[in-house]
Amino acid sequence: MVALTWTRGADSTASGDRSARARVTLLALVAFVVLASLASLGTGAAGVSLPQVLGKWLAGEGLTLREHVVLFDIRLPRLLTGMLVGASLAVSGAVMQGLFRNPLADPGIVGVGAGAGLGAVLAIVLGAFLPPAILAVAGMHLVPLAAFVGGWVTTLILYRVSTRAGRTSVATMLLAGIALGALSGALTGILVYIADDQQLRDLTFWGLGSLAGASWAKLAAAAPIMVLALVAAPLLARALNGLALGEGAAAHLGIAVQRMKSLAILTVAGATGAAVAVSGGIGFIGIVVPHLLRLVMGPDHRFLLPAAALLGAGLLLLADIIARLIIAPAELPIGIVTAVLGGPVFLWILLRRRGIVDM
Amino acid sequence: MLRLGIFLAVLATPLAAQERVIVLGGGLAEIVYALGQEHRLVGRDTTASFPPEIMALPDVGYVRALSPEGLLALDPDLILASEGSGPVETVQIMQAASVPFVQITEDPSAAAVLERVTAVAGHLGTEAAGAALVAQLEAEFAALAEVTQAVTTPKRVMFILSASGGRINAAGRDSGAEAMIRLAGGVNAFDDFSGYRLLSDEAITAAAPDVLLMMDRGGDHALSDAEILAHPALGLTPAAEQGAVIRMNGIYLLGFGPRTAQAAQELHGALYPQPHKGG
Fold it and tell me: Are B91 and B67 in contact (CB under 8 A)?
């Protein structure tokens, strides 16, 4: 595979120079996320700004109801959701690219995207036909719930299909993913055909992604899964570094390759499933962030994974600020912003990298 | 008759006049104007585009993907929304900010138009103007019903929603277009599906509509006569042979606001150019 050239080129024995650079990058990224968070809390259509709120707080004045709602019911859950979703997508992308040893891999590769999409479409189009008992329990969270379940079911099927005699073949998984993607695309197509106009518009908006629906309730359901996955991901770092040498070599290095694959797939399915469920389809974070970071700090997953979490979180917050300001008081779906920004950046990476990626 | 809408939010006391109103829905916006209360509007959604002056107000986007902060930025004290506006999270945040978010029925029918007028007038505290408008509309609908009852052989009307790439998307049962066709004294050429569907050429030929009805949205969506004649299925319909093609403004035709009776009357006139006698 062409991709091997670069992943293998910079092996897991990172030089001292590189790790120093990685540490500096990590520190810079922490600062970036802090700044992006402050910006995210302090900007928005409603014009409630942080200095103004801080000034009131210092002066001992209470916030008006509206300021309180804007800060604590709108911006804060949105900030936390954006951070977790961005971090989940970027880390999942980095893990998948490492696992598949393929620069094109993104979180969608384990079938989460297609499956979650199908789940969401099913809920939007056929949700009304569910028994009232189920509707009463799922309520307004039916779509995110269905997206999460859909993502998981697809991933499990893919995993079963590509695992034989206790060994998961990533190549089979890649190809089976294409087949399953086509299949869920077809099912989605049938549902789109029977959907009415309003449902069609809901589907379109869901597919473009948004953080506008962020709420404490959704966050409470999705955050534990994303946090768990983000905590688990760094455990994979050494194994992913070893895997860059090939599965055989990794096994000789004493890496439990199969266990690591299962853990990686579970982590990605969990993180991406939860992220897609709360925010809809947000593209490009999972593919642009890890590539951008490899340019700066090399491919060592011990640094790459935390850095991806930070950069993913910060970038999604910035994209969200653009999404909510550019056509205020209306809002642009964030998936449009990430694609418009991510596409050119990805092209630029390709052009810069060409010499390394090409044989 | 006052509480016809579905109230998701706490109703503000009717005595306090709300002076900063956001209206979500083309039909509702027209009602606000018809009641002479447009000076109280501070925002609108994308579908509220008539009368043209309303375009000067800030647009809060698509009614089912409303941004909570975007709404609050306009500092509203009342939001008049069509049923189904959302998402639910946004509605809940309006509740938390104690902004009344009133959802009003969206049914495409004459009765619902009257319900909407009463509901909007009630929330704006202009009940008298509302009652006058209801009386006027009732008279218009009654006059219309009298005219349409005289129709003995109703025309079969096909409403074309879009025709991009030659693929015809037409109205079936339970659609706003069907309701308008019926109000105007015609029948929908399609009743075997509900909502709007892409049709095969054969289905169009089989339905044999007498009249083609479409929206005039400034050119891009409406088909020209030449395109209709050139279309493999539309070109063979009785409607195309007789050149019976009606183009009407989209919000006027399907807005189900205060101009609905007038629009149906106009559609009726276009459907039956010769005044018919009782037999």
Answer: no
The 10s digit of each residue's pLDDT in A130-181 is 777 777 666 667 888 888 888 888 888 888 888 888 788 888 888 888 888 8
Cα(A196)–Cα(A309) distance, integer angstroms: 39
Residue B73 makes CB contacts below 8 A (sequence gap 6+) with A44, A45, A46, A47, A328, A329
pLDDT digits (tens, 9 = 90+) for B180-228: 999 999 999 998 888 888 889 999 999 999 999 998 865 555 678 888 8
| DSSP one-letter code for B38 | G
- Provide the whole-model pTM: 0.84
**B68 interfaces chain A, CB cutoff of 8 Å:** yes
User: How far is Cα A193 from Cα A311, in angstroms, rounded to an integer?
Assistant: 39
Query: Does the beta-carbon distance from A330 to B70 stay under 8 Å?
Result: yes
Cα B60 → chain centroid:
19
Which residues are within 8 A (CB) of A307 and not within 5 positions of it... i.e. 6 or more apart?
A: A22, A25, A26, A29, A293, A297
- For chain B, the structural domain boundaries read 6-142, 156-271
DSSP string across B123-161 = HHT-HHHHHHHHHHHHHHHHHHHHHHHT-SS--EEEEEE
CATH architecture of B156-271: 3-Layer(aba) Sandwich (3.40)
Which token pair is A55?
Answer: 């000034």
Q: Is A251 on the interface with B (CB under 8 A)?
A: no
What CATH number labels A4-357? 1.10.3470.10
User: Which tokens belong to A245?
Assistant: 């040498």
Q: Rounded to whole angstroms, how far apart are CA atoms B167 and B170? A: 10
Contact A45, A329 (CB under 8 A): yes
Alpha helices in chain B (DSSP H): 26-34, 68-73, 88-96, 110-124, 127-149, 176-183, 201-207, 225-230, 238-241, 250-254, 260-271
Phi/psi for B214 (5° steps) reads -150, 170
Q: Other CB atoms closer than 10 Å to residue A164's CB: what's the count?
A: 10
Give the architecture (CATH level 2) of B6-142: 3-Layer(aba) Sandwich (3.40)
Q: What is the CA radius of gyration of chain A?
A: 21
**DSSP class of residue A299?**
S
CB-based contact A222:A278 (threshold 8 Å): yes
**CA–CA dist A134, B216 (Å, integer):** 44
Top residue of B20, B47, B69 to mutate, by most chain A CBs within 10 Å, is: B69
Write out the two tokens for A164: 């034989």
Q: Are A287 and A93 in contact (CB under 8 A)?
A: yes
Strand (E) or helix (H) holding A1 = none
8 Å CB contact of B74 and A329: yes
* A331–B43 CB contact, under 8 Å: no
List all residues 6 or more positions away from A120 whose beta carbon is below 8 Å from its beta carbon.
Answer: A143, A144, A146, A147, A150, A203, A206, A280
Residue A41 and residue A319 in contact, taking contact as beta carbons nearer than 8 Å: no
Look-up: residue for tokens 């797939």? Answer: A265
Residue closest to A88 by CA, chosen among A335, A275, A290, A221: A275
The C-alpha R_g of chain B, in whole angstroms, comes to 20
Mean pLDDT of A186-215: 85
Instruction: Tell me the C-alpha distance between A281 and A205, whole Å.
Output: 9
B87: which chain A residues are within 8 Å (Cβ-Cβ)? 140, 212-213
More confident residue, B126 or A3: B126
